[in-house]
């Protein structure tokens, strides 16, 4: 049993992390699918707004609530799942609104929901998506009874974005500098806000030149309205951190074999280890397999013109495979002790349940990318 198969058996949360465009959504869905087939009720929660995941699971669309994957969608696998499979796509704005509706004081809810600063926070503030994804994960883990939840995390340009984003949002909500600046407004309520519109301090006047007095009013109003929720935010943030460090939680690092992607995943691997978080495996997705000797033999049987074109293609594939192998060897050395699993680049994109199942065979170790030595033509 390889590392991912073991994780599907024993973990309660798996978080697929990495930069954008490396196939995290596909890997996440495949892990949840395999767990359901093996008998564990599973949920895959994705951030990807594309319909690819929904379509591959036999669903027309995914929303902000869990949807069960119909049994008919799994029929092409030729096996009957022993557990139920659910999927959902996190709606960032809706999840923020639900959070405010649930936890804000009744007399503050509408004021927060219609505040321009809140609307920016819930849709565009750096780190907001990562924060709300972790909030949703915490809610699902504590309020639902799924045996396994697989979170397809937001794509990160830098590894620190994922680990530090929740703290950044909390710092913004509880910023002492902002409170100091807005003290007149915060202390005086509506009257203070009208007085504050004149700019009562040099700092306020200076910032107003760039942001506008109306923007400062909006910020003051938001800080006043959100203040009663700050302790609740901090409490759940502590819960999220404990969940991330729990023995029942594992991280799956997903990357592609490109040089830039490999550097990012090595850095991410170090950070997760330093933060006492368990990395179950590193998945290198879309690896170019080395063309085998049989392909060169087939090329020799072609006419001269076709043979030249096919052999040129095989040479290009050989170079790509050698580059991938070199990068993977460096990654294996950097992530010493962490299982490394390779999934090949398929001819077609993963777009249906059968393709997810095929991906799973590589993730679970049922199949492996062959590594024959390249058999170059003799002339």
Structure description:
The protein is elongated. The protein has 17 helices and eight strands. With 379 residues, it is α/β, with parallel strands linked by helices. The two termini are 44 Å apart. Helix 7 (128-143) packs across helix 13 and helix 11 (202-211) packs across helix 12 (213-226). The protein has helices at residues 3-10, 24-37, 52-56, 92-103, 109-113, 116-121, 128-143, 159-173, 176-181, 183-196, 202-211, 213-226, 230-245, 259-274, 293-300, 304-334, 353-363; strands at residues 13-17, 42-46, 67-68, 85-89, 148-152, 249-255, 279-287, 340-344. Helix 14 (259-274) links the parallel strand 6 (249-255) and strand 7 (279-287). The protein has an eight-stranded mixed beta sheet with strand order 3-4-2-5-1-6-7-8, with helices on both faces. The protein is 55% helix and 11% strand.
How does the overall form come out from the CA principal axes? elongated
Query: Mind summarizing the main beta sheet?
Result: 8 strands, mixed
Look at the helices and sheets and give the structural class: alpha/beta
* Alpha carbon gyration radius: 25 Å
The level of helicity is 40-55%
Mean residue pLDDT: 81
Strand order of the largest sheet: 3-4-2-5-1-6-7-8
First-residue to last-residue Cα separation: 44 Å
Poorly predicted regions: 185-211
| H/E element sequence | HEHEHEEHHHHEHHHHHHEHEHHEH
Question: Given the structure, what is the number of helices?
Answer: 17
Number of strands: 8
């Amino acid at each position: 049993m390889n590392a991912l198969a073991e994780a599907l058996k024993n973990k309660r949360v798996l978080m697929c992390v990495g930069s954008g465009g490396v196939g995290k959504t596909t890997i996440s869905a495949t892990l949840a699918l395999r767990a359901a087939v093996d008998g564990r009720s599973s949920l895959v929660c994705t951030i990807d707004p594309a319909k690819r995941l929904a379509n591959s699971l036999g669903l027309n669309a995914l929303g902000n609530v869990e949807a069960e994957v119909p049994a008919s969608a799994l029929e092409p696998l030729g096996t009957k799942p022993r557990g139920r499979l659910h999927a959902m796509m996190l709606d960032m704005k809706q999840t923020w609104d639900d959070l405010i509706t649930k936890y804000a004081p009744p007399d503050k809810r509408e004021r927060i929901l219609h505040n321009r600063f809140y609307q920016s926070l819930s849709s565009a503030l750096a780190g907001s998506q990562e924060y709300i994804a972790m909030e949703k994960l915490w809610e699902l883990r504590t309020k639902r009874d799924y045996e396994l939840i697989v979170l397809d995390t937001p794509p990160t340009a830098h590894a620190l974005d994922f680990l530090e984003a929740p703290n950044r949002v909390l710092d913004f909500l509880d910023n002492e500098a902002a409170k100091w600046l807005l003290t007149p407004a915060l202390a005086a309520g509506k009257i203070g806000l009208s007085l504050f519109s004149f700019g009562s301090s040099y700092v306020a006047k200076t910032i107003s030149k760039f942001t506008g007095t109306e923007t400062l009013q909006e910020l003051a109003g938001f800080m006043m309205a959100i203040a009663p929720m700050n302790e609740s935010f901090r409490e759940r943030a502590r819960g999220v951190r404990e969940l991330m460090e729990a023995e029942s939680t594992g991280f799956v690092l997903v990357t592609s074999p490109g040089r830039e992607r490999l550097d990012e995943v090595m850095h991410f691997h170090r950070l997760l280890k330093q933060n006492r978080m368990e990395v179950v495996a590193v998945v290198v997705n879309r690896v170019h397999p080395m063309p085998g000797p049989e392909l060169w033999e087939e090329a020799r049987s072609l006419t001269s013109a076709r043979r030249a074109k096919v052999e040129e293609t095989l040479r290009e594939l050989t170079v790509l495979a050698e580059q991938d192998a070199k990068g993977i060897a460096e990654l294996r050395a950097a992530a010493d002790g962490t299982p490394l699993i390779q999934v090949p680049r398929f001819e077609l994109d993963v777009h249906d349940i059968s393709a997810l199942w095929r991906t799973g065979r590589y993730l679970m170790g049922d199949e492996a990318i062959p590594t024959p030595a390249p058999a170059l033509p003799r002339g």
